[in-house]
């Protein structure tokens, strides 16, 4: 049976109704913080804040790691489908959201608001509200938990009020009295609650009590706020005074006023195959319902790129809710981005609406201002829906907005219409690309389930090549349906370089991908259009404002204005603060425009600037990760390039993490476009980050690209450096023979060039490689370390000497000469601290701790291991962290602390498993033995050898 998680009360987990032991209250709090963000990344700093707030203990991070390790074990034992995964930047709990009561509550409430069957909606609301047991996350008293409880309580109240409205529509007014009375007492100034109470009383034959309820509300509002009840409650009061028959039990709370002579129904036909968009549809409905009884007009702005399905969404939703607008539905295409005609003047749209509302031409005033006033007067008090499609900007929309409560306006535009949001209070909805599942469903609906199921690989290729853009998928499906060709044929055509936009053409320009994009592009200012074209030359999945500034050779402040223009036009998406992206079809279009508009030399110069930006920024960041590293002899960046500067190690690591995919793409792009020096130099600047974070496949990829590029240049320094990068990746994967071959080649190349420091570095790498080959290789490791030490001495490199002293000390420790090991490593430490070489400091403290362990000095060993662990966590070196945790567990075990040993080994195993490290099985053996025996493994059991 699957596990179910409960947060609407205390943090609990149950399997088949039986509670699961989740451990310490703070450990349950960690689980709660992850479950609230189910399937989304949560950083360690967020976990610390959510669990302890400002009262975080000194060793909070270490405690969090222990809690996470124990939670992973507990969750694995109850449900294999629930996975606690460590990702770059934090942890993610992969879980079915319907198994978490908070997310199930939100899903049920949203679905209840969107279904058209009141009885079904009532059942859904009741299911949602039954999930509540007590105060959410009870027992957790951090500011984050308090804020979340307030949010959830507001959502609960909204669901309760919506439930009451639905129950009133179903004629269940009598049974609502107890809960309505209690709520009216709790919220004496809430007009919606008062209106619900009035209606329940009235329908129960208690007209006098209903009128008194209104008078009491009026008195309280006047006394406490100095206001009168809003229009909705006043209208309900007037209807009760006149015994309006529309207040019968089958009616809703909001009742329309007198109708106009003509009730317009202007909606176009709904799209037959709308897929997905559940959240957007729910948001549209929620905006309407949240305004019920408040007395405000609802304006919603739906924005998104060309072909994303804005009109389809708006019209589909309008048909779904048309029964809520008995006074009519108005629709106009404002032609904001139509190349065949100018954008519609608002006065023209108003005259069309007046016609639809039954105003004869002789009664239409002559001035546009008077026409707008008449239009709004006709809408006053009406429950009417106005759909303003394909708007150019806020100025075009404002004259068409109704000004009365009960009216709803939905505006669609390729522009974000920020002014409409800021000034007019519009609620923004931004449409994104379809998900993989939604894209597949669109093809199923167009082509049939059998055809899609028969060619799954081709379907996946089509979805990828169409970038999950609804318009592109629709054209592709139509093309396949018309030709009857296999899906593999279409997939192959789409995959052919440079042909996607040709394949996704249609007879009608309004439904051709290239033409639809061109309408947005044509509306740009010249500088923004140039930037759009240049961004088509950028190889990464997204781009920062700083990198875009270097690409275009413009100052960052000016660049930000142009990026904002592209984002407003939905040609770019600011998916994270300061980071911009567009989907692959827009990238193809931008590249097409660049190739046809900008000369070759300008495009080449832009690519050169972009690569310079990433190379110089990465090189500076790498030096912060390794302050003692020798700088590469880079030429100065091109004019117009403004490299980014990280203030410290943490920010450098954060920059690498953010730009990871972009930097890999930049290496490949440099190699493919003839920038060979950039290729190997970027690879060298990336190597430390990739190695420390366990991205060893990426390390091998950039290393091999560097080997080829440096060979083409015949670069005497780049070639051995590139070989060393590849060797490091092979070593991490356990491919020792290939690693050795590359290192011997590097040693030979450094030797031919007379590069003594390079030779010494390579001897150290060879010693690291030998470190994984077992105890028999220790004498050879010692010899290699001494060879490196002699070379560093000869060229006066003090840091290299300190590094080799650590390696010599480690070798002595492995040979059993612990006193000599301590002497060498302690001699190395002051030099390593002088150069701020924290990686080698961590190695030195690790070696010192190892020696203390085998001298039987367990408390000293624990202290030194902890110091080494702090240093390596500060570096973000995950393989080294696992390595030290492994030996830290040995020390705890020798000190007769099996629980601490278990936590250390488990945490090491988690890291190695996530990295796909070949030595994860060695940790599993230790844990299995510990769990089986429940006692010591043997204080003198030797740990596995490690890399130096």
From TrEMBL:
Location of the OmpR/PhoB-type domain: 1-95
InterPro entries xref list: AfsR-DnrI-RedD_regulator, BTAD, OmpR/PhoB-type_DNA-bd, P-loop_NTPase, Sig_transdc_resp-reg_C-effctor, TPR-like_helical_dom_sf, TPR_rpt, WH-like_DNA-bd_sf
Pfam families, sorted: BTAD (PF03704), TPR_12 (PF13424), Trans_reg_C (PF00486)
UniProt keyword annotations, A-Z: DNA-binding, Transcription, Transcription regulation, Two-component regulatory system
Domain of life: Bacteria
Residue ranges of the annotated DNA-binding region, renumbered to this chain: 1-95
Keyword Transcription regulation attributed: yes
PANTHER family assigned to the protein according to its UniProt record, in alphabetical order: TRANSCRIPTIONAL REGULATOR REDD, TRANSCRIPTIONAL REGULATOR REDD-RELATED
Family: Belongs to the AfsR/DnrI/RedD regulatory family.
Protein's name according to its UniProt entry: BTAD domain-containing putative transcriptional regulator
Organism, scientific name: Streptomyces mirabilis
């Amino acid at each position: 049976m699957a596990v179910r998680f409960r947060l609407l009360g205390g943090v609990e987990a149950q399997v088949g109704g039986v509670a699961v032991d989740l451990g310490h209250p703070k450990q349950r709090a960690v689980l709660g913080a992850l479950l609230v963000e189910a399937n989304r990344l949560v950083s360690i700093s967020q976990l610390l804040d959510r669990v302890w707030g400002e009262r975080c203990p000194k060793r909070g991070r270490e405690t969090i790691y222990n809690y996470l390790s124990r939670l992973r074990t507990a969750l694995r034992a109850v449900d294999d489908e629930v996975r606690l995964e460590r990702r770059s930047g934090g942890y993610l709990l992969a879980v079915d959201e319907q198994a978490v009561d908070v997310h199930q509550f939100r899903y049920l409430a949203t679905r209840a608001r969107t279904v058209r069957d009141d009885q079904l909606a009532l059942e859904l609301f009741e299911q949602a509200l039954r999930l509540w047991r007590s105060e959410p996350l009870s027992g957790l008293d951090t500011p984050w938990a308090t804020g979340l409880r307030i949010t959830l309580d507001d959502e609960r109240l909204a669901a309760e009020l919506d439930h009451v409205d639905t129950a009133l529509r179903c004629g269940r007014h009598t049974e609502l009295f107890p809960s309505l009375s209690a709520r009216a007492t709790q919220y004496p100034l809430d007009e919606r609650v008062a209106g619900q109470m009035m209606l329940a009383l009235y329908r129960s034959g208690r007209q006098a009590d209903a009128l008194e309820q209104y008078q009491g509300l009026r008195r309280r509002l006047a006394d406490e706020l100095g206001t009168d009840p809003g229009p909705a409650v006043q209208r309900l009061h007037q209807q009760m005074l006149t015994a309006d028959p529309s207040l019968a039990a089958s009616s809703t709370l909001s009742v329309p006023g007198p109708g106009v002579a003509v009730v317009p129904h202007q909606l176009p036909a709904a799209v037959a195959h709308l897929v997905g968009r559940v959240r957007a549809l729910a948001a549209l409905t929620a905006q309407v319902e949240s305004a019920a009884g408040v007395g405000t007009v609802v304006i919603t702005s739906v924005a998104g790129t060309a072909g994303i399905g804005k009109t389809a969404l708006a019209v589909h939703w309008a048909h779904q809710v048309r029964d809520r607008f008995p006074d009519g539905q108005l629709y106009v295409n404002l032609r904001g981005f139509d190349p065949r005609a100018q954008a519609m003047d608002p006065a023209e749209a108003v005259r069309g609406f007046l016609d639809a509302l039954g105003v004869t031409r002789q009664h239409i005033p002559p001035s546009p201002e008077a026409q707008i006033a008449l239009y709004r007067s006709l809408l006053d008090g009406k429950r009417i829906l106005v759909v303003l499609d394909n708007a150019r900007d806020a100025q075009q929309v404002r004259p068409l907005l109704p000004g009365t409560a009960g009216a709803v306006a939905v505006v669609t535009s390729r522009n974000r219409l920020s002014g409409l949001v800021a000034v007019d209070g519009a609620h923004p909805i931004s449409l994104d690309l379809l998900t993989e599942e939604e894209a597949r469903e669109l093809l199923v609906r167009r082509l049939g389930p059998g055809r899609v199921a028969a060619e799954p690989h081709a379907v996946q290729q089509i979805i990828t090549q169409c970038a999950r853009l609804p318009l592109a998928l629709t054209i592709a499906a139509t093309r396949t349906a018309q030709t009857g060709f296999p899906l593999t044929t279409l997939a192959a055509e789409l995959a052919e370089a440079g042909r996607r936009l040709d394949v996704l053409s249609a007879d009608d320009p309004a439904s051709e991908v290239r033409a639809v994009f061109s309408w947005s592009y044509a509306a740009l200012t010249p500088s923004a259009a140039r930037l759009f074209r240049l961004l088509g030359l950028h190889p990464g999945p997204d781009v920062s404002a700083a990198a875009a500034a270097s690409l275009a050779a413009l100052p960052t402040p000016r660049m930000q204005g142009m990026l904002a223009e592209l984002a407003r036009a939905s040609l770019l998406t600011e998916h994270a603060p300061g980071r911009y992206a567009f989907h692959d079809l827009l990238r193809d279009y931008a590249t097409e425009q660049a190739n046809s508009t900008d000369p070759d030399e300008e495009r080449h110069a832009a690519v050169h600037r972009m690569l310079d930006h990433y190379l110089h920024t990465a090189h500076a960041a790498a030096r912060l990760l390794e302050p003692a590293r020798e700088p590469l002899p880079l030429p100065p960046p091109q004019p117009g390039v403004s490299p980014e500067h990280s203030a410290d190690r943490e920010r450098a690591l954060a920059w690498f993490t953010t730009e990871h995919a972009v930097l890999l793409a930049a290496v490949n792009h440099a190699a493919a476009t003839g920038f060979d020096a950039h290729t190997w130099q970027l690879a060298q600047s990336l190597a430390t980050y990739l190695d420390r974070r366990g991205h060893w496949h990426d390390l091998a990829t950039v290393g091999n690209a560097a080997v080829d590029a440096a060979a083409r240049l015949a670069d005497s320094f780049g070639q051995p450096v590139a070989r060393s990068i590849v060797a490091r990746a092979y070593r991490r994967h356990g491919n020792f023979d290939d690693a050795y071959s590359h290192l011997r080649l590097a040693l030979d190349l450094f030797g031919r060039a007379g590069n003594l420091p390079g030779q010494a570095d390579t001897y150290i790498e060879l010693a690291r490689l030998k470190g994984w080959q077992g105890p028999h290789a220790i004498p050879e490791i010692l010899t290699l370390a001494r060879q490196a030490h002699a070379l560093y001495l000869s060229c006066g490199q003090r840091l290299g000497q300190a590094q080799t002293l650590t390696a010599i000390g480690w070798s002595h420790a492995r040979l059993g000469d612990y006193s000599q090991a301590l002497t060498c490593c302690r001699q190395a430490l002051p030099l390593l601290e002088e150069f701020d070489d924290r990686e080698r400091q961590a190695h030195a403290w690790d070696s010192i701790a190892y020696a203390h362990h085998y001298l039987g000095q367990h408390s000293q060993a624990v202290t030194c291991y902890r110091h080494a662990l702090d240093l390596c966590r500060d570096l973000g070196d995950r393989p080294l962290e696992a390595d030290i945790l492994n030996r830290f567990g040995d020390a705890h075990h020798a000190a007769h602390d099996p629980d601490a040993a278990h936590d250390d080994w488990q945490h090491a195993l988690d890291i190695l498993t996530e990295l796909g490290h070949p030595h994860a099985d060695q940790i599993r053996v230790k844990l299995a033995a510990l769990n089986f025996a429940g006692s010591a493994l043997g204080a003198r059991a030797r740990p596995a050898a490690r890399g130096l």
